[in-house]
Amino acid sequence: MLAASRLRNMKVTEVAFTGYPVTDIARARSFYEDILQLENSRTFESPNGSWIEYDLGESAFAISNMSKEWKPSGDGPAIAFEVDDFDAAVERLRTNGVKFVADPFDSPNCRMTIISDPDGNTIIIHKRRPQ
Prior knowledge:
Blueprint lengths: L16 E5 L3 H11 L6 E5 L2 E8 L2 E6 L14 E4 L3 H10 L4 E7 L3 E7 L5 E7 L3
């Protein structure tokens, strides 16, 4: 291990983006844009596939099918999307037949539910309680 005195300090300042692998880019875009109503910010196309970003506050959420080694999974990390109206969001998800991994529940600080995207990636729909 290198001596700490010889290394410059590193400070992570923000989350640049969170990315999810998808298998069918058109189906994924329909889910994220039509059902979750995210607005596309940037799209990059290559012979290997697509990279699509959605700006969310100070960071971005991305979906991509550019790497065969990067596979969707409900067993890995999850992103939590903050919503303005939790009950309306849950109703919209149910109306659109979205798979619920956990029914909506309350905690002392928030309300949340856990859903899956069409590829099985885990998404938390979240609403903070007023402090």
